[in-house]
Design goal:
By secondary structure, the chain is α+β, with helices and mostly antiparallel strands. Among the domains are: 113 residues, Beta-Lactamase (2-Layer Sandwich); 154 residues, Alpha-Beta Plaits (2-Layer Sandwich). 62% of the residues lie in helices and 15% in strands. It contains 14 helices and 13 strands. The strands form 3 sheets. The protein has a 6-stranded mixed β-sheet, sandwiched between helices. The chain has a 5-stranded antiparallel β-sheet with strand order 4-3-7-6-5, with helices on both faces. A two-stranded antiparallel sheet has the order 1-2. It is flat and about 135 Å long. It starts with 5 loop residues before the first helix and ends with a strand.
Length: 514
Amino acid sequence: MRGAPPRKLAERSSSPNGEARRLALYSAAVDGGGRAVRGEGVLTIKRQLLLSHLAVILLGAGALGAYMYWSVSAQMLDAVSQRLLDNVRLIESSLDAEDIRALGDRADSAAGERVIGRLRRAIGLNTDLASAYVVEPRGDSLRVLATSLGDGHAGGNFLSSEETSLLHRGMERAVVSDIRSAASQRAELSALAPIGTAQHPYVVGVRLDADSLQRSLHLLRLSTLGAILFGVLLALVLSRLLAERQLRRIRSLGDRCRALAAGEPQPTGQPPIGDEFDRVIADFDATAQRLREASAQREAALTALTQANAQLENRVEERTRAIEEATHQLKAEIENRLQVEALLAEAALTDGLTGLLNRRAMLEMLVQALMASRGQGGFSVVLADIDHFKRINDVHGHGIGDQVLAAAASELEQLQGDNRHAARWGGEEFFLLLPGTGLMDACRRAEELRARIERMPTPVRGLRVTVSLGVAEIQAGEALEDCLKRCDQALYRAKDAGRNAVVAARGNAFATIS
């Protein structure tokens, strides 16, 4: 590989302004607030700080806000549930048990008015309550005796299904429905408490207005969101102040880079801040001084290197021409040798009469196929033998026999699609390797080959050529010799069965296909 001429390399390396150009590029990179170029867009350090602080505060404030919201909302819902229980207990204590029994037993209208009046006064004292009612359970049924909404609402469908399920527990002690379910479904919250003794079971119930509960949760959400927004605003302000402080030091470093690139003295009078940038600037000033001292020495060395490169270039060109000529000759010799070796290899692996692989080449291919399958099977083999071939040679001569062998090989090659998996096994026997083919598919291929050879034209009129075939599939863990032996046994069974047949070997069993 010749690469760039040494003289040009020396010229590029010995440029007096090479270091200055590199420093100018570096100063341009840190100029303008330390911009980091990404493709066509610019992401400044100020934006990076703002975005990083904003991401942190959003994650932190979001997590804290979510925790506060769920914690406070849970406490608020528990407090509302307890307050509703206190209200139902207070209403229960304000009701006269005698009025309740009179209303339930005799439907006393005066007692009913007194009960409804007490229920309405209780609702009036607490505007968050939607309604109150008195229920008399009767076995599996119930009767609504009075409601704060009036007698017209005391129908059979006055109670919800959840209140009905709470009623049995409300006969024993004060209970309240699931407030979290009511809050999520925007439904009314109910509380029940027993009245009187167990001999006279009555239950008083109250309902909390769903809108009141939702207003409280909405106010809590707004408060949480306001706290998060305040945290985000505070983070943005702090990020901006921190970014401005860092940018001042980056601009100072950029000024020093430009001064070094232009060969000017380093700027002074920059007040120290007391952070790591002060050490970086001090190290940069020391490095700039060492660069100026080394620049003169490097210029002298580069001049000497340029002269040496000029001499080396002439030598390299001469040596390169000699190597190219030798390489061209060697390449021609290698190509000729490869062609000869390819011809010899092809002659050693193929049968001269049929053009198919010979037995040695097929055995090597079988070993490779067995290794590729890792002993797990994965291919089938077919062994074919031309019926009464000796008779053909004796009656028509060996020339006609050779033509029959060539015609049969042609049919085998056309069936296989190539000659890489078909071989002349010996004499009038042919071998077919079917990679990735099961026993049944291999039998179909063998039957197709049998039919094609039976129909193929022959060099002698009236001469009919048939073939017998044995088929076997290699089993997992089976030795190659055992598989070939089973295939050969299948072929002999096809001969014994009258020839012109296909016999498949499955394990120790044999089946005649045709």
